[in-house]
Amino acid sequence: QQQVKQSPQSLIVQKGGISIINCAYENTAFDYFPWYQQFPGKGPALLIAIRPDVSEKKEGRFTISFNKSAKQFSLHIMDSQPGDSATYFCAASGSGGGADGLTFGKGTHLIIQP
Amino acid sequence: DAGVTQSPTHLIKTRGQHVTLRCSPISGHKSVSWYQQVLGQGPQFIFQYYEKEERGRGNFPDRFSARQFPNYSSELNVNALLLGDSALYLCASSSGSIRLGEKLFFGSGTQLSVL
């Protein structure tokens, strides 16, 4: 059972444009929602994270929008640059028991065209 | 400062064999987690250890086991390897609970191929 559904699977955006990636979750016990960026041959790196008591969080060009009632959250990358070309994963944690195990989406392969 | 280091970087094994993967967390980090990433998929949680105790386990068979040592380094062991165990195995560390605001840092992984 996939608990975090991510879309689109791949995305092509022109340089300077806005990249938008969406995720939906099922487990209402989730209380931590990070986004990770992964380059080929590297492990994922944390970009930005949000908790359900906040509807939006912005760090530089990256913004998370969170809709608790719809159980959805999204990543917006403003002024997208070729260096942003990577695979992006949404994730969630908080199923209880004291563990921090993250449930990841399947990823979005983002290409920023110059 | 060194990040999360994993060894080996690549490994080729045969079905039925066992394998041990190693991880050294960032200095000062007491929590270590293991994830399996199959090509084209997101990482899947295997284990979390904190202060040498297992804190969480994902939906993996008992062929997978792990432990954390007094210096907070960790080993992931997989017995009776199957072709489907071929994947990138990622280790991650944090100083505390990520749900309480600590950041999770991943290593570059060990690429395991089972033939």
Topology summary:
The complex is a heterodimer of chains A (114) and B (115).
Chain A: E1 4-7, E2 10-14, E3 19-25, E4 33-38, E5 45-50, E6 56-59, E7 62-67, E8 72-77, E9 86-92, E10 103-104, E11 108-113
Parallel strand pairs in A: 2-11
Antiparallel strand pairs in A: 1-3, 3-8, 4-5, 4-9, 6-7, 7-8, 9-10, 9-11
Chain B: E1 5-7, E2 10-13, E3 19-24, E4 31-37, E5 44-50, E6 53-57, E7 64-68, E8 74-78, E9 87-94, E10 105-106, E11 110-114
Parallel strand pairs in B: 2-11
Antiparallel strand pairs in B: 1-3, 3-8, 4-5, 4-9, 5-6, 7-8, 9-10, 9-11
Helix content of chain B: under 10%
Succession of helices and strands of chain A = EEEEEEEEEEE
Poorly predicted regions of chain B are: none
Biggest interface, chains and residues, is: A-B, 27 and 28 residues
Provide the residue-averaged pLDDT of chain B. 95
Low-confidence stretches of chain A: none
Main sheet properties of chain A: 6 strands, mixed
Classification by helices and strands of chain A: mainly beta
Q: So what's the overall shape of chain B?
A: globular
Subunit arrangement of the protein: heterodimer
Q: Measure the end-to-end span of chain A.
A: 38 Å
Main sheet makeup of chain B: 7 strands, mixed
Would you kindly provide a written description of the structure presented here, covering whatever features stand out?
- The complex is a heterodimer of chains A (114) and B (115).
- Chain A is mostly beta strands and 114 residues long.
- Chain A has strands spanning 4-7, 10-14, 19-25, 33-38, 45-50, 56-59, 62-67, 72-77, 86-92, 103-104, 108-113.
- Helix content of chain A is 0%, strand content 52%.
- In chain A, a hairpin with a 4-residue loop joins β7 (62-67) and β8 (72-77).
- Chain A is globular, with a radius of gyration of 14 Å.
- The model of chain A has no long low-confidence stretch (mean pLDDT 93).
- Chain B has 115 residues and is mostly beta strands.
- Chain B is built from no helices and eleven strands.
- Chain B has strands at 5-7, 10-13, 19-24, 31-37, 44-50, 53-57, 64-68, 74-78, 87-94, 105-106, 110-114.
- The mean pLDDT of chain B is 95.
- Chains A and B meet through β10 of A and β4, β5, β6, β9 and β10 of B.
